């Protein structure tokens, strides 16, 4: 069976990146991630990310480009990370998260990231530095 893809979004706005604190399931609750979710059959990764960011945070965003890397989450599920830009709205933890925070370049290590997400931080720092 083909792997199902989870798309996480490095949402950047005014030089900061959005971190979201998961509220469920129990094994990851309280940890911070790049918000996103599973791509539905027939959906591109960009469409999946834009849909998930609207459902979970209430914002309109545009997926910009995929970051290098791919991380197995569990059998049949792999995580890919995309950068995204905020088009409209202020992110709120509507679904799946208990809190959201904008982090500047000096704050990237200030939250307890999920392991895979932590590996992406050097690339996120480069994106923030590049403006
Ligand atoms: N969204 C997201 N999930 C991540 C990240 N890093 C990471 O290990 N995960 C894991 C946590 C979850 O087990 C899984 C993603 O599931 P999800 O709950 O976000 O997906 P979803 O919104 O489509 O969920 P559902 O509709 O199936 O309930 O991937 C990340 O940066 N973003």
From TrEMBL:
<dbReference type="InterPro" id="IPR020476">
    <property type="entry name" value="Nudix_hydrolase"/>
</dbReference>
<keyword id="KW-0235">DNA replication</keyword>
<keyword id="KW-0227">DNA damage</keyword>
<dbReference type="GO" id="GO:0008413">
    <property type="term" value="F:8-oxo-7,8-dihydroguanosine triphosphate pyrophosphatase activity"/>
</dbReference>
<dbReference type="GO" id="GO:0035539">
    <property type="term" value="F:8-oxo-7,8-dihydrodeoxyguanosine triphosphate pyrophosphatase activity"/>
</dbReference>
<dbReference type="GO" id="GO:0046872">
    <property type="term" value="F:metal ion binding"/>
</dbReference>
<keyword id="KW-0234">DNA repair</keyword>
<feature type="domain" description="Nudix hydrolase">
    <location>
        <begin position="2"/>
        <end position="126"/>
    </location>
</feature>
<keyword id="KW-0460">Magnesium</keyword>
<dbReference type="GO" id="GO:0006281">
    <property type="term" value="P:DNA repair"/>
</dbReference>
<protein>
    <recommendedName>
        <fullName>8-oxo-dGTP diphosphatase</fullName>
        <ecNumber>3.6.1.55</ecNumber>
    </recommendedName>
</protein>
<dbReference type="GO" id="GO:0006260">
    <property type="term" value="P:DNA replication"/>
</dbReference>
<dbReference type="GO" id="GO:0044716">
    <property type="term" value="F:8-oxo-GDP phosphatase activity"/>
</dbReference>
<dbReference type="Pfam" id="PF00293">
    <property type="entry name" value="NUDIX"/>
</dbReference>
<dbReference type="GO" id="GO:0044715">
    <property type="term" value="F:8-oxo-dGDP phosphatase activity"/>
</dbReference>
<dbReference type="InterPro" id="IPR047127">
    <property type="entry name" value="MutT-like"/>
</dbReference>
<dbReference type="InterPro" id="IPR000086">
    <property type="entry name" value="NUDIX_hydrolase_dom"/>
</dbReference>
<keyword id="KW-0479">Metal-binding</keyword>
<keyword id="KW-0515">Mutator protein</keyword>
<keyword id="KW-0378">Hydrolase</keyword>
<comment type="similarity">
    <text>Belongs to the Nudix hydrolase family.</text>
</comment>
<dbReference type="InterPro" id="IPR015797">
    <property type="entry name" value="NUDIX_hydrolase-like_dom_sf"/>
</dbReference>
<dbReference type="InterPro" id="IPR020084">
    <property type="entry name" value="NUDIX_hydrolase_CS"/>
</dbReference>
């Amino acid at each position: 069976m083909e792997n199902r893809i989870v798309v996480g979004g490095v949402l950047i706005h005014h030089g900061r990146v959005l971190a979201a604190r998961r509220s469920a399931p129990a094994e990851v609750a309280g940890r911070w991630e790049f918000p996103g979710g599973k791509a539905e059959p027939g959906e591109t990764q960009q469409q999946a990310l834009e849909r998930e960011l609207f459902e979970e945070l209430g914002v309109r965003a545009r997926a910009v480009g995929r970051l290098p890397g791919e991380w197995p989450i569990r059998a049949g599920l792999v995580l890919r990370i995309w950068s995204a830009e905020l088009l409209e709205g202020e992110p709120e933890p509507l679904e799946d998260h208990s809190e959201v925070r904008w982090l500047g370049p000096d704050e990237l290590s200030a939250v307890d990231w999920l392991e895979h997400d932590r590996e992406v931080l050097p690339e996120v720092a480069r994106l923030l530095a590049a403006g």
